[in-house]
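Hi everyone,

Forwarding the result from last night's run.
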Amino acid sequence: MKPKHTTLEELEQKWMQNPKFVAEYHALDEEFAQAAALIKARADSNMTQAE
């Protein structure tokens, strides 16, 4: 019998029902926003990570 595969969407749905997970998830919002801004600025400037 093959094991059932769980999708990322199914895992996220399950995890988001846990208040502790949700709190930690949202605590990282600012960090991920800063990383996204840095990546966008670098891409807009045609720079690599090494630069």
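The chain has three helices and no strands.

Cheers,
N.
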